[in-house]
Amino acid sequence: MSILVVLLSLAAGAYALAVIERWAVHGHLSLTGPAWAALALMGRESLLARKSDRLFFELGPVLLLVAGLMAVAVIPLAPELIITDLATGALFLNAALAYVLVALIMAGWGPNGAYAMIAGWRFLGQFIAYAMLIVMPITAVAMRAESLSTVEIVASQAQLWNVLYQPMGFVLFVVAAMGLAWLPPLDLPDATGELAGGVEAEYTGVRLAVLRLARMVIILALAGATVTFYLGGWLGPWLPAWAWSAIKILVVAAAMLSVGRYMPRIREARYLALSWKLGISLALANIFVVGVIALVVPI
Amino acid sequence: MILELMIALSVGAGLFGIGLYGALSQTNLVMIIMGVELILAAALVNLVAFWRYLHPDEPAGQMFVLIVMAVMAVEMAVGFAIAIARFRVRGSVEMEEARELKG
Amino acid sequence: MTVQMIFLAFFGGAAVWFGVVVFRTHSMVRSALALLFSQTAIGAMFLVMQAEFLGVLQIMMMATEMSVMAIFMVMFMMDPGGMGKMDMTHQKRLSLWAGGIGLLAALLLVWLPDWGPVALSVPGAHEQAADLGRELLGRSMLIFQSAGLTILTAMVAATMAAIVPNAEQRK
Fold first, then answer.
1. φ, ψ for residue A14, nearest 5 deg
2. Could C16 and B14 be called an inter-chain contact, meaning their C-beta atoms sit closer than 8 Å?
3. With an 8 Å Cβ cutoff, are C5 and B15 in contact?
4. What is the pLDDT of residue A191?
5. pLDDT of res. A204
6. Which residues 10-29 of C are in CB contact (within 8 Å) with B?
C-alpha cells in the first residue's frame, strides 16, 4: 500500500519538477508543457549509433532509473509512509546513488560517440569530488541520531532541525547533491554548451525520455534526502505529516534546480580541488563539532 | 542450514578458482588486479558465511570483513599507482615486457 | 529447500557467472563492469545472509572501485573497445591447471570437514550495526586504527608514485 502511495507521489513530484525546470529554463510557466514534450519524445525515432555497445546503451538509462527508485525507497514521507525502513537506510541511500555513476558511464560508453564518452568519464571525475562530501555530512547526521535508519534520523530532529544544528554539513551536502544530480553550475556531464548534451547527446526517443525521467527521480531523491537529513522530514506544525514532506521536498528541489542557473559553471578540476582541499576539511571539522556538541549539550 | 553454508563456501571456492586463473593468465597489470580482486571477494564471501552460520554473535567476524575491504581498496590504489608510473616510463603495462626483475 | 537457500544459490551463481565473463569478454569496459556486477551479487549474498550493513557497504564501495577500474582499463589497454579481438593471455595451460586445482582443493576443503552445529538465528540489523560499532571502537580499535593508517600511507604512497616527477620545476 505505502509502495503505491510513494510511487504515485513520486510521479506527481517528477511532473511538478519538470514544470518547474521548464519554467526556470524558458522563463514562462506552462502546466502541460512536459506532457507534450514527453509525448513528442515517445513518437520520435529511436536512433542507434553504429558499432555501439548495445547492451550498455539500452541498460544505462534503465539502471539510472532503478538507482533513483532504490534511493527513494528509504526516504520517509510520513512516520509510516516509507517503502522500507532499513536499519542502514542512510548508507543504503548512498549505495543506491553510487549506481548513478555506473549508469552514466554505461550510457556514455554505450553509443560509441566522443561527446557522450567524454561526458561519462568526466562524471567519474566529478564523482571523486562529491562522493566524500555526501558521505561525511551523513556521518555527522547519523552521529546525532545514533542510528542509520532514516525514520529515526527524522525523529531525532524533533527539538531542533539539523540545518540549525549543523549548518556546515547542510551546505556541504546540498552542494555535493547538486554535483551528484549534475545540476548547473555543476552540469559538466551533459554540458549543453560545450559537449552538445554530453551523455544525452546520442539518445533519442523513448530512451531519452527514460533518461530525463530518471534524472527527475534522482533530483527528487536528493531533495528528499536533504529534507530527511537536515530539514526535519515530516516534522512541522498544523499540516499533516505527508503535506510537510511534500512541501519541503518540492521547495528544496525547485531551489536546487533554479539557484544554480544564476552562477557561472565550475571547471571540474577546480571543483575537485575545492572539494578535497576545502570541502573535506570542513566536513571533518563538522563531524568534530557535532561530536563535541552531542557530548556536551544533549538536545 | 548446513547446505546454505556449503553453497556460500562453494561460491567462494568458485570465485577463488576464477580469480587465480585470471591473475595468472592475463598479461595486463590492470587485468591481473581484477583477478586479485576476485580472490579477495572469495575471501569476503567465506568470512561472511562463517560469521553468519558459525559465529553470529561475534561482531569481530564482521570487523574482519571490513579489514579485507580496506585491503581491497589499498591494493587497487597501490596497483594503479604502479601502473601509472610504469605507463609513464615504458608506455605500456603489459607484464610480458616487464622482465627487469627476472635476473 | 528454504527461501534463503534459493536466493543464495541464485546470487552465488550470478557472482560466479559474472566472474567468468570478466576474463572472457574482449571489451575492457564490459570486463570491469562484469566485475562490478559480480561484486554486487556478492553484496546481495551478504544481504541474504542477514549481514545488512556489510551487504550495503559492499554494494556501495564496489560501484566506485570498479568504475575507477574501468577508466584505468580504457587508459592503459591497447584495444579498450574489444573490436580487434586481441588475445591478452599468456601461460594459458598453466593458469587453467592452477585455477582448476585451486578450485578443486577449495571445494574439497568445503565439502569434506564436519562444520559442527550451525547457528540458526542472528541478531537483528539494528543490534548488529550497534555491536559492530562497539567492536570497532572498543576491542578492535587498534586494528581499525592501523587499517586507517595503512590506507593513509597507501594514499600518500600511491600519489607519490603516480605524480609526474619534478612537476614543480616544469611549470
1. -60, -40
2. yes
3. no
4. 66
5. 76
6. 12-13, 15-16, 19-20, 22-23
Q: Give the Cα separation of B20 and B36 in Å (integer).
A: 7
How many other C-beta atoms lie within 10 A of the C-beta of residue A288? 11
pLDDT recorded at residue C44: 92
Query: Could you tell me if residue B91 is left (phi over 0), alpha (psi between -120 and 50 degrees) or otherwise beta?
Result: left
Residues of B in contact with C16 (CB under 8 A): 11, 14-15, 18
pLDDT tens, residue by residue, A202-219: 777 788 888 888 888 999
- Domain borders along chain C are 1-81, 125-163
How far apart are alpha carbons A20 and A25 in whole angstroms? 9
Q: State the nearest Cα–Cα gap between A236 and chain C, in angstroms.
A: 27
Partners for A (CB, 8 Å, 3+ pairs)?
C
| The residue to which cell 549508469 is assigned | A103
Cβ neighbourhood burial of A154 (10 Å; 0-12, 13-18, 19+):
buried
pLDDT at A298 over 80: no
For chain C positions 15-54, those within 8 Å of chain A (CB to CB) are 27, 29-30, 33, 36, 52-53
In chain A, domain spans: 2-296
Helix (H, G, I), strand (E, B) or coil at A64: helix
**From A49-58, A73-82, A131-140, C19-28, the region with the lowest mean pLDDT:** A49-58
Q: What is the pLDDT of residue A281?
A: 92
Chain C nearest-CA residue for B15: C16
CA A250 to chain centre: 13
Complex ipTM tops 0.95: no
User: Residue C63: which of A92, B12, A97, A57 has the closest Cα?
Assistant: A97
Show which subunits contact B, needing at least 3 CB pairs below 8 angstroms.
Answer: C
pLDDT average, residue stretch A58-67: 88
In the numeric block, the cell 532499513 is attached to: A86
Which residues numbered 112-171 in C keep a CB inside 8 Å of some CB on B?
Answer: 115-116, 118-123, 128, 131-132, 134-136, 139-140, 143-144, 147, 150-151, 154-155, 157-162, 164
| Predicted local confidence at residue B55, as pLDDT | 86
Q: Which of A88, A94, A99 sits opposite C125 (nearest CB)?
A: A88
Of chain B, the percentage scoring pLDDT greater than 70 comes to 99
CB within 8 Å of C27: residues ≥ 6 apart: A53, C80, C81, C82
Contact B85, B78 (CB under 8 A): no
Closest CA to A20 of A10, A12, A30, A8: A30
Query: Contact A121/C129, CB-based, under 8 Å?
Result: no
pLDDT tens digits for range B72-102: 889 888 888 888 888 887 777 777 777 777 7
Q: Which residue has the cell 546503451?
A: A57
Residues of chain A contacting C124 with CB distance shorter than 8 Å: 87
Task: Tell me the pTM.
Answer: 0.87
Judge: C56–A53 Cβ closer than 8 Å, yes or no. Answer: no
